[in-house]
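Q: I'm teaching a short session on how sequence maps to structure, and I want students to see two examples side by side rather than one. Could you give me a first protein with its sequence written out and its structure tokens following it? Keep the formatting plain so it prints cleanly on a handout.
A: Of course. Example one:
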Amino acid sequence: MIIQGVPDLGPGLRLHLNENTGGCSPKVVEAVRAFDGPALASYPDFTHAVVETAAFLGVDPDRLVLTNGLDEGILLVSIAYLGSRTPEALVELGAPATTTTGAAEILVAQPAFEPYLHGAHSLGAHVVAVPPGENYAFPLDAMLNAITPNTRIVYVNNPNNPSGQPIPKNAIHQLAREAGHALVFVDEAYHDFMGEHFLDQASAYPNVLIGRTFSKAFGLAGIRVGVMVASPAILAPIRRCMPLFNLNVVAVAALRAAIADPSFRTWYVAQARESKELVYAACERAGLKYWKSAANFVLIDGGSRVKDIADGMIANGVFVRDRTNDPSTPTCFRLTTGVVEHTRQACDTLEALCAKL
């Protein structure tokens, strides 16, 4: 039987999907519980949510679209920008008009968030995958060299999922300049945990789009809310292929409640920061290689024992993300770092397991 989404692993610590392990703001729960039958039967009005989200991000409302999770945003961008010619929106903004000699291309550094690839494949585009640098450093020179007239979307995942490595701002500046005929999609899903972002500089480049999600720091993964910020011209072809009511009425209310309570985000970001230090220390005691992360997760190298470690963690009720099917992370698994209490339990389980193997 084919199952949509990711199967539920049952009871345990959900540290495999980078969800917010602390839940969401109590104000969000109150907003959801306030719905009655007539409210649920009505189409949503996005006006207040768009205006409030724009104010929260410090951008003009015309530069923003709300999406059903950032995954939908990636698919919409694929539909809008993976054509055979330089998108009209970019040409109008001064980009050179080019026509692909073959399939349109997306350019992405490895390891990569899978929906980038899914969006490309669904439109018949070609994926140009650039290997990572040493210790998963962003391969700027290789990315620049891989730009061709066929390049239509350049994905910049900052910080990267699953490695957690940040990308220097100067690298994004160079890509935006050199790929003027392509859309540069800067995915900042985990920017809350990194402490910096490119949003405040994106308006200098007509071809840059910033993607954000409220699934992580705000805990709305189950409700599905994302946002994309770009010039009105860049958003125009996206709006044309976007469903009219892509967010449901509950999601709209939850989003407004979430951004009205920044204290929850502040608390959770602090929890994630402390949790990462606990994971680093546990890995060192267990003799495991790891990479310090700018996100709310840590990529861990299990070496020849990786399958035993990942399977053992799951069997003991601590769910981790097995990354061994990705050629870029063949001996690795990923562990979400959220609420400190959960992380302590995960570290105890990891150390005990490694001691037995």
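Q: Perfect. Now a second example for contrast.
A: Example two:
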Amino acid sequence: MAKRKYSDGNESYDSFKAELRANQLRPAYVFFGEEKYLLQNYRNQIRKKLVAGPAEDFNYHRFNDENWDVEAFADAVDAIPMMSEKSLVEIIDVNLFDSQMSETDRQRLISVFSSLPEYCTTILVYDTLPWKPDKRMKKLWEAVSGAAKEVEFQRQPESQLIPWIMRHMAACQKSISPDLCRYLILQTGGLMTALAVEIDKIATYTDQPAITRHDIDAVVIPVMEAEIYHITDAVRVRDFDLALQKMRSLLLQEFEPIVLNAAIGRQLRQLYAAKTLSEHGKGPYDLMQLCGIKDTAAQRLYNQASGFKKDVLKQGIRLSADTDYAMKTSGGDSGVLLEMMLLRLAEMSGGSR
């Protein structure tokens, strides 16, 4: 069977990058998504490209929830650039589809977005506020969507993150192997903002030129998803002591037992899906499509599933559901119930090593 290529499914992001490289920016963009590192990086690139220089204060206009005013925004868009070909207007975390907005302001917004001048680029930035346009406001939605290109900054695939990590380590005079890059991605959750912080910490921690796994473990606190993976992997190799140690570490970080049980249940369901797909000749790409996860997670789950028996995963899913019910109804200690669930799961897999 031919190997299928992964796709991040983010054509708007790719086309936006091409527009930026070609100096062919559109009149307006909507920036949103969970990868804040990229969002901020491209905001800075556009600002530098369009308005950097002695007249930047005149050509750059920034609005947020505190100073938002529709007429002031309209004036900023219409203002002729000073000693520059372009001006830049940013609107940060403002809900343009606020139902409390007056009809006068709404009509003014429709008018502005329907006739944005060529010399002005407007960016709607949704950093802490989600981008949720109310398409029932048909005329406003048509004006905004007609003028603005939506660009979602998604969590990046492993194929992009590995060379990025290696470049950043090299800038710190350090080297790191692709396998350790994958491990660092797992431990941090794979968001570039977190990775950038951890890269600096690791590079500062060691005085050796080559990064080791010990260096990563010494300074990086794993995200919950990473520890859940390590827990199920410990169950896979029948190491109950390690699984319990990882679980207690999460409890010490004040994660609620019911949340951890839900995460384990989700992991078991995804492993069961991977096992079933494998039986039918399907691969990680199909798991991505089925579970809505990224290529890195899909490959990792697919590999881990090969070490489980299908009936063990099925029983584990039922056990997690029973534990959830007991946590909500029995009045017992949820932490103890969670540990008992892990013990029974390890027994199903063949007991401790």
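Q: What should students look for in example two?
A: Point them to this: The chain has three domains: 11-152, 158-219, 224-348. Also worth mentioning: The first strand starts at residue 28 and ends at 32.
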